[in-house]
Predict the 3D structure of the following.
Amino acid sequence: MSDALNKAEAAVARAETDTAAVQIALAALELAKAAQAQQTAQAPACGHQHKPGRSAGEWLAIGCGVCVGGIGLAFASIAIAIAACCATGCFLILRHIWQDMQKGR
């Protein structure tokens, strides 16, 4: 009989342990539900979908595009400056030739 009593006591101890584990699991579920309800309550009230932010690859591509565009703009500015210097030189040479022709008459 004591063997049966020991088995019964062990079964009761397991049941008490399982009950505590089940209670902890249920408490964790309740906490998760409360956290989820709080997150949905804090959702923006504007009613439209927000776009996700840009990824690192997109920012890298934008940065490369800006760098290439800046270098292109720098070369274009240099080309305009060279063209302006050439035009000024041609104007001065032609003016000098015109003055020489006017003195020769």
